[in-house]
Each structure stands twice: as structure tokens, then as C-alpha cells.
Amino acid sequence: MCVEMVDFGIKTPPQHATWSDLLSVWQAADDIDVFESAWTMDHFYPLTPPTDGPHLESWAVLAAMAHATNRLRLGCMVNGMHYRHPAVTANAAATLDHISGGRFTLGLGAGWHEPESVAYGIPLGSLRERFDRLDEGVEIIVSMLNSSRTTFHGRFFEVTYAMCEPKPLQAKLPIVIGGAGPKRTLRTAARWADQWDMVPPRPEDWARANAVLLEHCEELGRSPSDIRRSVHIMWEPAADPAELANRAAAFGDVGVDLVIFSMRGPYEPRLLDPLADALRA
Q1: Are strands 158-162 and 150-153 parallel, antiparallel or unpaired?
Q2: Which of 59, 78, 111, 251 matches a 20 to 30 Å C-alpha distance to 175?
């Protein structure tokens, strides 16, 4: 089912897979014009069983994919703010934009996965602390990507006359805020995001969250048209491509701009063409 005005991407969580598996899918998608972007996720342990299985690190994967592809936009849905200092994230983002030739989008979120945070000794904190940290970090990153020097003194992060050079190739490197919390996440998205992403069960669930985003935009004086809307659809290996296309169309009908099909493995290039054909039909 062809959906006008809606774009499509794929996501390959780098879990339970080899590098060659992921690379083959991304390079195949790079040759299929239906897919405008490809995404990974920022975790260190698998989120699906077996949870003690292999998981590749997202920034290293993205740097390699940026060099191995030519057309796809690329990014991570989304980077947990607690894993890395925002000044380091800003520098990594600018570097990836150069490696990719200006195709990078930076995804940011508050973080949530306690097992890996505890195991790695990375403080996650309460919900309030997570979102306070996210707000501080996004402000630092946006400033460092756009200003010559940044000074910020907060509860979680401090930078003093900090530089990030070179600046990204893109005049404005897009930032995605992921999540649907009505009080904090959506307000952060309304303030900072160039793209807002969530994983809604149904189109009506997305529409309710979008209505809250619009309220925050109005309060902050932000034009909603400045924010691209994206959603994830889980892509099981046995899923019917026509059904996936129908689900994407339903989200397009309520105003979603980008539908990302998140593969659940195995990561096989042969799965891409049937979905692309269904999306074109």
C-alpha cells in the first residue's frame, strides 16, 4: 500500500547478530530507494532473549556503516544520556556527520535499562534524575554543535568554555528525542527536537501523544511543523509484508512522517525487497 508523504526506514538492533549480518542488510537497504534511513539502538546487553547473548556497541557500528553506505541517513534510536558525557556525544556526533558526508541524525533519550547500567557501574537514577540529566545534556549538545564555545554548570554536567570542532557538515544536525512521557519527554521534544519518535501500539495511541506534544509546542512558542514525527513498527521475520505496509499506512493517516521497521532477526537482506514492494504497491 503506497503511502504518500510518508517515508520509511529500517532498524537493526545490533543484538544476536554478527557484524557481517548487519552490514549486508544496511548495504542492501542502501540500494533500495524506498528506505530513506537506517537505525541502530544504544544498549550493551540484548533486550530480547537470551539476554546474555552478543550485542555490538552502537557508535562503533554507526561509524562503520557511515563509511560502508552512500545514500541512507543513519542514526541511533536513541542514545541514553547517562552512558556518555554530552560533550563527548557532541564530538562523536559531529565526527559521524563528517564520516557520513552529512547523513547523521542524533537520537537522545533519558535511558531506562537498569541491568546493563548496574553491571557497568553507570548511575541511572530515579525517573526525575534521568529526565533532569536529559534536559541538561541536550542543552549542552545543542550549544556545542552550534556555538564556538559552551559554558554550562548543572547538577549532572559541567562544561567550561568548551569547544566542538569541526562543526557538523549539516547546517543543523537533526536531533531526535525518543519517548512518550507526557510531562517530561514530550516537553523536551517540543523544546529541542527536530524529530520525535515513539513506539506506539496503535495509531490512536500515537495521536494522543501527539496532541500532548502540540500543547507543549504552543506553551513554548515552537512551531509543530518544525518537528518530524516518526514511529517504530516491530518487524518479526515471519511478518506479512502487506500487513506491515497496511500498519504503516494507518500511522501515515494520522500524521506520522516516518515509519521505521525494527527488525527482530534474523537479519537477512532477502527480507527487504518484499517489504519495499508492498510499500510501493
Answers
A1: antiparallel
A2: 251
Low-confidence ranges of the chain (pLDDT < 50): 1-2
In degrees and rounded to multiples of 5, residue 178 shows phi and psi of -105, 140
Give the residue from 25, 16, 83, 20 showing the smallest Cα distance to 46. Answer: 16
Residues 125 and 122: their CA atoms lie apart, in Å, by 9
The string of pLDDT tens digits covering residues 170-184 is 999 999 999 999 999
For 211, the enclosing helix (H) or strand (E) is helix 203-220
Count of helix runs (H) and strand runs (E) in the chain: 9, 11
Candidates 275, 250, 256, 260; CA nearest to 9 is 260
Task: Give dist(CA 25, CA 30) in Å, integer.
Answer: 9
The torsion angles phi and psi of 51, rounded to 5 degrees, stand at -75, -5
Task: Map residue 84 onto helix, strand or coil.
Answer: coil
